[in-house]
Amino acid sequence: MSNDIFEFEYPRVLSIAGSDSGGGAGIQADLKTFAALGCYGMTAITALTAQNTQGVRSIHGVPPAMLSDQIDAVLEDIGADAVKIGMLHAPEIVLAVATAIDRHALQKIVLDPVMVATSGAVLIDNPAIEVLVRELFPRAILVTPNLDEAALLVGRPLRNAEDMEAAAHELLTQGAHAVLLKGGHLPGETVMDLLLTASGEKHWMHAPRIRSANTHGTGCTLSSAIAAGLALGQPLREAVEAARAYVRAALLAGARVKTGAGSGPLNHGHAPVPMRLKRL
Fold this sequence. Notes:
The chain is built from 8 helices and 11 strands. With 280 residues, the protein is α/β, with parallel strands linked by helices. The model has no long low-confidence stretch (mean pLDDT 95). 37% of the residues lie in helices and 22% in strands. Helix 1 links the parallel strand 2 (12-20) and strand 3 (40-52). It has one domain (10-266): 3-Layer(aba) Sandwich (UDP-N-acetylmuramoyl-L-alanine:D-glutamate ligase), CATH 3.40.1190. The strands form 3 sheets. It has a 6-stranded mixed β-sheet. It is globular, with a radius of gyration of 18 Å.
């Protein structure tokens, strides 16, 4: 078919992450988020997990060559306007992703350094953390750790806003271009998140805490929503703010819904928008 009949393309977002068999987090949450925000979602699976709302039973890593083939197959044919990176459990998987980023000259990369599941299950090997920081922090436009992940990365507990800001600055020295440090694990009725960039922009975001047992996949959803915003052409700060609003609405919409016996999912489809179109 001749290319001259085509006028549009969808905003394309690739998720490089692990699979959650329970559907609440990982690539399943990413695809739901992309679709809800009007983007075309694609995946390169790094690992299979057997999990549900109560926890992770087992993890089966995908061979690095297979991961590279997935990325190449998608990008050589369809391409991507933005990329979300999630669970990378081993050093060789991190390196496969880093080389693919360079091979395809990927831009607009959101890195969610997934290390511990909501249930407490560890999702990354210790040797992979050093490689993750060295190889992917400089290649990502944004890194989105939660409080526990940031504490692991800087080697100390984070107990208040001052600790958060100091940790965000330290993550910038580790190579990140911008950090969205999520403060939801701090106590209190107000949730604080901090966006800090290497250029010196500091943006605190505050919101009332939403009481819900259904928080599984919140971090995956947020980073995916940011990537979707970037694919739609939003500046970084606007993409972050829009993603936070989407996640909060999804939390509220799913707060009274029972799915499983543990930490249930967000309501990703609470207000879906039609697939967006970009002129070629």
